[in-house]
Structures are given as structure tokens and as C-alpha cells.
């Protein structure tokens, strides 16, 4: 989502120099709190000095390689995943906790687990048929279009969603200038 928003913003505001840094939400929060960033984008994180501006809700999607048996069926039950290798990304990520919680609540223990440090690595492992993964839909657009990863509907499982918010310091006041313009571009892009 962010590259498209940045391109749209740059086209509309070519004279504004925009810097981007990535990191876990906790790291992004620190950038916002220290004043190194005017806006952060991540999951809602509680801090009395930060306000949350809703951006979107992302869903976790079970994906498999195109030749996986689940791909042709298009659906699976959580218990069916017990015999699969589950590919997780980043133990410090909230996505990891969402995925683990889903399996714990269903009483399902995957046959084995691979833990990777980023979503791109997880997608590549799934594409190679090395396991299945619950990944954020917004990170899968290209692979789903190209059909290198296939979505599988989880039967009897609650859809796992995660809100994404813009983070701003509460004492920053009303957004104006480039900050207001970026927030408007962000809202337009996802709304």
C-alpha cells in the first residue's frame, strides 16, 4: 500500500521532500515520539503521547503454493493444517501473535514451524512449496495476481484482521502543510 501512496503524494506534491524509514511498530513509535518522524504507520500501540488515525483493516490470508493440494480445493479446516509446515514471520511482529493465537484457540499444533524474519522471505518459502502461511493480504497483491500463491479459505475459523493506523504525537496539534497533505493522500488511497 505504501509505495502507491508515496507515488501519489509525490505526483501531487513534487516539491515536498519525503523521507521513509521502516521498522516494527515499536521502532516507528520511537521515531514519532522523538520527533524524527511526523507520521508513523503501523498497528495500534498504546502510548499516552500518541494518537491513532485509522487507515485500514488488513486481513490474514492462508496462502499455499499453486501446486499444493489446498490450492485446487480452495479451502481447508484449521485441523487440516496440523500436518502442514507452518511458515511464520518475525516473532516480534503482531502478525506472529495473531497467527499463533488462532492455532492455540483451535487446539491445533502444526507438524513443524519455520520462523523467518520478514514477510518477503515467508512468501518465497511458500512459493517453493516448503509450507503454508497466514500472511497479511496487503503484502500479497502481486503474488495473488500472478497466481504464484493461492488463497485458501479457512473453514470454521474466525477471520483474522489487524487494524493499521497512522501514529502522531498528541502534542503536534492539528496537522497542516505537508503532514495534512500526506494524511489526506493516505485517506484517499485507502478510502
Task: Tell me briefly what this model is.
This protein is an alpha/beta fold and 191 residues long. The chain has helices at residues 2-12, 25-34, 69-73, 94-106, 119-127, 141-146, 177-190, and strands at residues 40-42, 50-65, 75-77, 85-89, 112-116, 133-136, 149-155, 161-169. Helix 1 (2-12) crosses helix 7.
Description:
The protein is built from 7 helices and 8 strands. The chain has helices spanning 2-12, 25-34, 69-73, 94-106, 119-127, 141-146, 177-190, and strands spanning 40-42, 50-65, 75-77, 85-89, 112-116, 133-136, 149-155, 161-169. The strands form 2 sheets. Strands 1, 2, 3, 6, 7 and 8 form a 6-stranded mixed β-sheet that branches. It has a two-stranded parallel ribbon with strand order 4-5. Strand 4, helix 4 and strand 5 (112-116) form a beta-alpha-beta unit. Helix 1 crosses helix 7. The model has no long low-confidence stretch (mean pLDDT 90).
Features:
191 residues, alpha/beta
Could you tell me the strand content as a percent range?
A: 25-35%
* Overall body shape: elongated
- The H-and-E topology, N to C, reads as HHEEHEEHEHEHEEH
Termini separation comes to 12 Å
Structural class: alpha/beta
- Low-confidence blocks of residues: none
Task: Specify Rg, calculated over alpha carbons.
Answer: 19 Å
Query: Sheet bearing the most strands, described?
Result: 6 strands, mixed
Q: Got a strand count?
A: 8
Q: Report the total helices.
A: 7
**Percent helix:** 25-40%
Let me know the average pLDDT: 90
Topology:
Elements: H1 2-12, H2 25-34, E1 40-42, E2 50-65, H3 69-73, E3 75-77, E4 85-89, H4 94-106, E5 112-116, H5 119-127, E6 133-136, H6 141-146, E7 149-155, E8 161-169, H7 177-190
Parallel strand pairs: 3-7, 4-5
Antiparallel strand pairs: 1-8, 2-6, 2-7, 2-8
